[in-house]
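Changelog note: in this version the structure field was regenerated for every chain. One regenerated record is shown below for reference.
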Amino acid sequence: MNKDEIIESLKGAISTFKNDTEVEKIGRVISVGDGIAEIAGLSDVVASEMIEFVASSQSKRKSSVFGLALNLQEYKVGAIILGDDKGIQEGDIVKRTGKILSVPVGHALLGRVVNPLGEPLDGKGALVTDAFSPVERDAPGVLERESVNTPLHTGIKAIDGMIPIGRGQRQLIIGDRQTGKTALAIDAIINQGNDRVSKKVTCVYVAIGQKKATVARLVKELEDARAFEYTIIVAAFASDPASLWYLAPYGACAMAEYFRDKGEDSLIIYDDLSKHAWAYRQLSLLLKRPPGREAYPGDIFYLHSRLLERAGKLSKEKGNGSLTALPIIETQAGDISAYIPTNVISITDGQIYLESRLFYQGIRPAINVGLSVSRVGSAAQTKAMKKIAGKLRLELAQYRELEAFAQFGQDLDPQTLEVLEKGRRLTETLKQVNFAPLPFEKQVVQIFAATQGYLHDIPVEKVIEFQKGLIEYIQNFNQDIYEFLLDQKDISQETQAKLVKAIEEYKKTVSV
């Protein structure tokens, strides 16, 4: 090969040469344990960025593990590990990914059980979706929202009649353990498939720190009620690390926001935020953040406020979608003035307080009317329910107050006796069994019969049986009453007269 050929060959090699060298800033693990890793060297990492614990021959791991940067200090980074930390050792290499943690979203998740990272747990195969959404997003601004004006029917007479929930509202469910908080939320999910008044709502249920058997039983209840097909269950089990407990509500909220942003209505249930706060306290103490009241970190209020503020009803310009949030908080010995309960009460638009005393008396749902409130109020009720149930709350509150005095057994005047007798029948009317929500139009009929005094001659122990028979009688012989209520969402004088006539005719067929 002569000199010219060598020169041409070199020129060709130079022209086709590609420099594939990439410069990466890496860090190394300096300590690891309890799902927390401290890393030196990642000086340019950003908050909430995903980082990768690289697998190597020394680490004895076949695949990489991901983490989330939370503490950004001068000489080290504190990160939570998203998964098992057993294979991570001191000295392992850690790389930035340049990505914010995102989860898969879309209709492919309906009818599935997934973990907080969107990975399936139900053995039904991989999720087929190209849509992803960051777990942390800014809440919609004031100008992007509109006031709550459409009811979200739960199928529970006591709630739809006295403490109405609107689409886009944040309504807290609070009470001691084993008082029926989860059952209320599940009834609300089931009723979305039965509600003929408004368009169907997509539901997301977040199980935080629950047993696998509990979640499996919940799936079975939803499948039996044909409600699982429009529901996503996001589960961080009791055996999972605290990092997944912490991420569960945020990942689930991103999944629910997908439907809201498409102009649809969605409902999310956080069960429960007490355990979420415990998990965040654990992570914060391990990250050596300074403890405050009850050892919770100073940003514990912000933890829940930035989550719950993402719920709301969007304006018409933004698609008119809505995201309704039903957070659940567990109290200790009925103390609603504790730290976390008062935090969440101040963030939400009202609360439904379930009382142990009422629960043990057999009044279920055990809703304390005096301490329960909806700050949206009748703006989220149909005209029919507003007319029929307007005095229900007041009459029930009067009854509960007089009931305490009546226990002493002194002589009572006729007016007081009348209030007590009507109150007992109202209480019986509002009783419901679990997983049997009642459609709106049938609720109106039962509440009308109770509030208008048509049960005064029905023995208290037979009220439930009478009310059940009444809605079946109207279904068979006066179906047009239901059709009018569903069509107009109001009750006219003509329909009211028909309803009175139907109740009187049914009473003649019943032996009391």
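Spot check on this record: The CA atoms of residues 301 and 343 lie 6 Å apart. The chain has a mean pLDDT of 92.
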